[in-house]
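Hello Y.,

Per our agreement to keep a running log of every chain we model this quarter, I'm adding this entry. I've kept the format consistent with earlier entries: sequence first, then predicted structure.
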Amino acid sequence: MRLGRVFGVDIYLNPFFLALLALFFVAGVLDRGLVAFGVVLVHEMAHALVARHLGITANEVELLPFGGVARAGTELQVDPLRETYTALAGPASNLAMITLAVALKNYGLWHSDLGPFFLQCNLLMAAFNLLPALPLDGGRILRSYLASRIGITPATYRTALLGQAFAVLIVLVSVPGIWWGACGLDIPVTAFFLFYAATRERSAAPYLFVQLLMRKQQELRREGVLPVKQLVAMENIPLGQLIQPFLPRRFHLVTVLDRRWHYMGTINELTIIDALLNRGADVPVGELVKK
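Predicted structure for the entry above:
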């Protein structure tokens, strides 16, 4: 359901989110539901607006029962620096709202019931989203850090695995919590959504890597200069294995050696990508070098 458009970003309400608001209404705490709605909206709008400021397409925000999602262009995920700034925007907005709320309280503008709940919502949302696990903001920041060191595919696998691990841990902790009445079913349900989303991030890693490779030529053409990373490979190494260490924002040159450790030649990343797309991942890199 489309709610409206704010600063060029379309706001959508997931049907399950509407059902959750209906439950708040029936329970007589609709005011708290609307406060939570506002906190989530500001958090996701912060992501969308920062992404747009950085030149990333981000025209839609959807509010879900246990959070929300700002739908940004896939180019964001293969640019570590811009992904970090965009991910930080959400928790930063929560901290800004906490600061504003404390300031208003000091001036006597405070609601004895909703004020503390507003602070609680912001603290919980910022803390939860800063967990270093995909698809949370902290996971995106960690993925961006790791991608520049070990490559985007292994970085995605590691942070998605952390997301799955955190989800399982939350469920294990919530079971005795439900038994003792310390928490409700919303905690394990949130963990289920976290595990599902982390699994989707993990399955998308190979496609993300292909997109990263395809963008290199555009980056080099646009900027004119990229830092170089030199690699050395034996002639029998298949292209699919060769490209695994390729990093974002680096242009790779590969020196190829034969089985007797003799120099065969040097090829650049574009040549490797072209051969990968046209000849397949099993082609040995030695076949790309003229003897």
